[in-house]
Each structure stands twice: as structure tokens, then as C-alpha cells.
Amino acid sequence: MGEEELITGLCEGNATAYNELVRLFADKVFNTSISILQNAEDAEDSVQEVFIEVFKSIHNFKGEAKLSTWIYRVTVIKALEFLRKKKRKKRFAIVQSLFGMESVLPETDMPHFYHPGVQLENKERSAVLFKAIDQLVDKQKTAFVLHKVEGLSYAEVAEIMKTTVPSVESLLFRAKQNLQKILKDYYDKNER
Amino acid sequence: MEPTESKVKETMESIDGMSRANANPFLYDKIMHRMQAAKQTRILRPAAIGLAMAFIVLLIGLNLITLVHYNKTSATQVDGTSLVKSEYFSYLNNF
What pLDDT digit, counting tens, does each position of A44-95 carry? Predict the structure, then answer.
């Protein structure tokens, strides 16, 4: 099924087109979501929201960008929204714990997320890296995940983030610098 | 190279050549189920709101009826008391 045929099918509410879209993009959307959210359950929830949003607003898709670019954009927006909601809930829980209404476990400095796509020998190191990625600002995090984890080119990342290739290069440069700093601090603190 | 720097370098390279994480094989079914559930909620929500409003109106109505009925009853009770009182005093006067 070609892209135009797929979009027409989606606009008509065709179940085969829905199924085909999920088949084509499920892993891409899930990989991006899990790398940003760093939690498999949250990522699955966010992926479902992405496809529901795509099905609902396919009529608004004007074809100015590629379908994949648009889906990646929705994925990133949904994942970052999910993160913000989660952080809000965490803050609320902390406030509640101050009033003795609920107990909150103290956040540890230890890495907790293991990406399922990482090779076994790199499991521990990559967990530390993902913990550092989580501390980046949204734009740097998005650019780094799309380029380094999802393997997209600078041009593709720029299109998804609605920016230019030099901006993406600059974002990635700053992201790498910040990651190196965070990692250096981590190893200085934890492995001496 | 310092040990920390080599660790940082190794960590930065730890995701090189990683593969994509695979989505749940039943993702499509889950999405369809969620969309169906959302549709049902959209249908049921106005009905539930309507039912709740009807219940509130009924409660207010019953309250008003009880109030009017209570007022009438207490008025009758006052009349009864004064009747007994007047009859009692007229009996005393005639005694």
C-alpha cells in the first residue's frame, strides 16, 4: 500500500489502512517513546495515544511533510507531554508527603532503565547514559534520541523538530557536551 | 587517558549499534479496544449527566412537596391546639 493510498484509506476509516499504519510505524513510535519516557508501560500507553491521535486528526494532515515525519512529531509531542504530566504528579506527591498524607520513596542516583534494544555487554553503561539523557532539556533530548537512538539523519530530525539542519547540529553538540559533563560528575561521585 | 574519561567515552558509545525496541504485537487490538471504550464513554457521559440532573430535580421537587405538606400540617395542628384551648377555658368558665 503506497503512502497516498494509505492516507486515503485512513481518511475513509478503513480498518485495513489502520492496521497497515500500525504495522509500519509501531516499532518506530515505540522505540522513540520508550527512549524518551524510559518506562515500558508509559511508552505503551503513549504509543496508543499517538495512533489514536493520528487516526483522529489524519483529516488535518495536509501532506506538506512526509507521513513518517508527522507521526514522529506526534510521538515526540505525546511523549514529552506524558513526561510533564508525570513530573507534575511526582511534585504533587512530594507536597502530599510533606503534609504526611502519602509517603514518597527518595529518588536514587542509580540508573533504573534498561533499553531493550541495547546489546547485553553494554547494558549497564547504557543505563547510566539513559539516566543522563533524562536530565537534558527537551529539545536536546529529542534531537539526541531521534538521531542516536532512532538513527534518523540530521535532515529528518530537523524536519520533525521544524527547524534547520545547523540548529540540529548545534543541539546535538550541546547535548553531547552536557551528557559528558553529567557522566563525568556521576562517575566522580559514584565510582571512587 | 584518565579512568573517568574512558568510562565517559565507553558510556557515550554504549548505544552505538543498538537495535530498535519492539512494540507489543497486540498493539493494534489494544488501540481499537481503547478507541471503542472512548466512544462508549462519549455516548454514556451525556446520558449519565442527564440522569444525575433528573435525580437532582426529583430531589428538589420531593423536598418542596415535603416542605409544603409540613407547613400545612403544622398550621392544622395550631388550629387544633387553639380549639382545645378555647374549649377548655369555656368549660372552666361555665364550671
Answer: 999 999 999 999 999 888 888 899 999 999 999 999 999 999 888 888 887 8
Q: Which residue has the cell 531521534?
A: A146
Query: Looking at CA atoms only, how far is residue B56 from chain A in angstroms?
Result: 33
Burial per residue of A161-182, b for 16 or more beta-carbon CB atoms within 10 angstroms, e otherwise: beeeeebbeebbebbeebbbeb
In chain A, which residue's Cα lies nearest the Cα of B29? A19
Residue of A nearest to B32 (CA): A52
Residues of chain A with C-beta less than 8 angstroms from the C-beta of B19: 117
Mean pLDDT of A159-177: 97
The answer to whether B14 contacts A118, with C-beta atoms less than 8 Å apart, is yes
State the ipTM, two decimals: 0.82
Domain with CATH 1.10.1740.10 in chain A: 1-109
Q: Range(s) for CATH 1.10.10.10 in chain A?
A: 111-192
Residue A184, CB-side half-sphere exposure with 13 Å CA sphere: 8
Query: Under an 8 A CB cutoff, do A48 and B17 touch?
Result: no
Q: Does A55 touch chain B (CB under 8 A)?
A: yes
The CATH architecture one would assign to domain A111-192 is Orthogonal Bundle (1.10)
For the domain made up of A1-109, the CATH class stated in words is mainly alpha
How many Å apart are CA B90 and CA B82, to the nearest integer?
12
Q: What is the pLDDT of residue A175?
A: 97
